[in-house]
Batch of 4 targets.
Target 1
Amino acid sequence: MRIISGEFGGRHLLAVPGNKTRPTTDKIKENLFNIIGPYFSGGRVLDLFAGTGGLGIEAVSRGMDQAVLVDRQGAAIKVITRNVAVTKAPSRFTIVHSTAAAYLKRAAGHMQFDLVFLDPPYAKQQIVDTIKQLAQAKMLAPGAQIIAETDTQVTYPVVPQFSLTRQVAYGITELAIFQYEGE
């Protein structure tokens, strides 16, 4: 696993030991950023189920100003901390040891994000509820993109204030890209 492109491109990232996380593969990560970017001119990114922190780190490497990396597992937080150290730019990252729900409650109204990654454990997917919480908490900048990584069995209802702009499957993994149309 590595940072694919940008300022930190080519640097290797650690994986979380065990099977409680499922890191996004380099192939999927590269395809994702080709769809949504591939580069950015500033902004904030939230990686809500960060695991290794790879998606948020990649976004900062490609031009986002700042990333908030949230995970509930202590082992993941240790790996994220080490992976952020690889960038040699730790001030551009905030690492939060918390559940997604607790973070959203605590951070409501304090910060807005231009890009949000949602890659929860496949068995515990609550993508639509999380998207609605982000909007209700006023944590999304106008036009923000939300990328959900799920298994291919997920279907999405119409979500007010959001459009589902693209869905792409890679084996058992599917990426869904939502655009925030509120405010």
Target 2
Amino acid sequence: MADINKTRVSNLGANNRSPVFDDVEQGKAPSVNFFVNQRPYNMAYYLADGIYPSYPTFVKSIRLPQSEPDKLFAKFQEGCRKDIERAFGVLQARFKIIREPARLWDIADLGIIMRSCIILHNMIVEDERDSYSQRWTDFEQSGESGSSAPQPYSTEVLPAFANHVRARSEFRDPNVHQELQADLVKHIWTKFGMFRD
């Protein structure tokens, strides 16, 4: 999945009160353009677990995978989703406000709180970075980082009502969900399948 822009990869967890979920459902999500297996896609997607609907914006794992490509996809999807959950756990450990119940908060306020905590966390990490910057430099020079150049993407917000209706319809299309998942399975198998034991 390294070729696919990681800024699009996020986890919504089990909370449908997520501002991201609301923005996507209302057609306010960023517009992105990317290719998987030479097929174009124009909708950001989020790694999700099985409780989410089969919408193109939610890439879920494959329940009881049978084929080797499906098993490898499930391993990558679940691993990436767990990394994101761990990152959220770091924020919860650092900021008490994130651990507290949020049902009574306004969605816009929750978004501001989360962004503020992420910014504060990044400021703290940057401040502490001097203590381990040499180890990171050594790691990057060894060529083990595995990072790839980020792919360009557009963040244009859909302005007109007609676009809103179209986006909402596309957002709920289970066929596009299955096409994207199948393309991701093929992509991961092509990229990483030959290195399996």
Target 3
Amino acid sequence: MSNPRERQRMFDVFTSHGFSDVTVFGEAFGAGIQKGVRYVPGDEVLFRAFDIMVAENFVTYDLFSALCDEIALPRVPEIWRGEPSLAAFDALLEQDSAEAKRNGVIAEGNVSEGVVVRSNPLLRDVFGQWLIIKHKSDKFAEVVKRAPGNKVDVGPAQAFAEMFVVEGRVHNALGRLRDRGVAVENDMADMRVLVPEVIADLLKECSTEWQQAIAAGMSDKQIRAAVTKNLGTVYRHMLIARVT
């Protein structure tokens, strides 16, 4: 909300529902943020809400939609509802971005990054974590997809690095760095800030697989070294592709 009147309207709507401790989750997108997909026709940066939490719980998606509409707060497009299955989720990938189309951007190959999948109402797993997943297009995947039986004879640390240090993860790491105002020079000097950013992401998102590599006999230091080496290779290829 950009002005006091809009903020007051948001406050009034939440208060009318009896909500006091409210957090709105969303994402900025547009010029200079995401790479590989164009969401807006010009240089503007837009915002879309994707969830609302009251106290420690998320509201249902239907209530989220109703609240956003009352507030006139733009939200991410809902593109499908139905029984969950991998086939259904895969069918949503490799399609032109619904958000881009909504903003008047129609271009061949302007494929969306992927979809966020959630239940309605939102549920938790046995560990108390919210059940939300990202199902990404191959172009933006953060994990290498290998054909069944296509095993490569490398050590656990290198196998971990090759599996999880991919262009999609590096693109996202660069976006987070830019969001925080960290200077990105688009050359190999960026490794200074990319390495800790990617390792922090892996420790958060792939902690189970990291520990499995340790259980297989790798040290934490060996895994970090393999990640750094593979990241250097991936980022070098990305920079070459950028200038060719």
Target 4
Amino acid sequence: MKAFCFDVFGTVVDWRAGIAREAADFFSEYDLTGIDPYEFADSWRNLYQPAMEACRSGKRPFTRLDILHRENLGIVLGNYGVNTAGLSPDALERLNSAWHRLDPWPDVVGGLTRLKQHSIIAPASNGNIALMVNMAKRAHIPWDAILGAEVTQAYKPSPPAYTRMVEILGLSPKEVCMVAAHNNDLHAARLCGLSTAFVPRKTEHGTNQITDLEPSENWDIVARDFNHLADLVVKN
């Protein structure tokens, strides 16, 4: 394995806590009482896959995630009875850009820094380039390259999201390891011939999470966290 490519939302960063934090500030600014920030984060995230599916299915051209997030933000605020016409466009853009300011899990930067000494490391995210760069700069995530949907022009789990990434790196599929906390992401990558590594994030969806607590298949690597992943890879 010469390159490790990482799912980002959930695997590298705690999107739920980050969105809830910034949503709480937004609600306070506009005196929007009675909306639970974590429930709001979940509701916004629930529109993520349907928005990308429209691009995957060809119903609309490929559209970068910042735009999809902004469209979904209007929908979710409307679902909570919030009239966005009365809100500052700058405030709405600031909330939408919260996805650029998510915090990594505590083991991420140290584990990636060690892994980087051995292998190429890059995001394999549905996030667009500006989002990934801004997130990395703020959180000191030491990527070698920025890969993902805007580069491959495909949203996971569509096969081109994986195969084009491998082509860009100039490697064979088995030399590229997809790292994710989501079994379905790894399953799609394996179907494209990539190696796979599962790192669970058992509180991605909160303390009552019931999905992706354990590996669902015999992945090539199963690690407790990124430090453990680095231990397994660098040792070999």
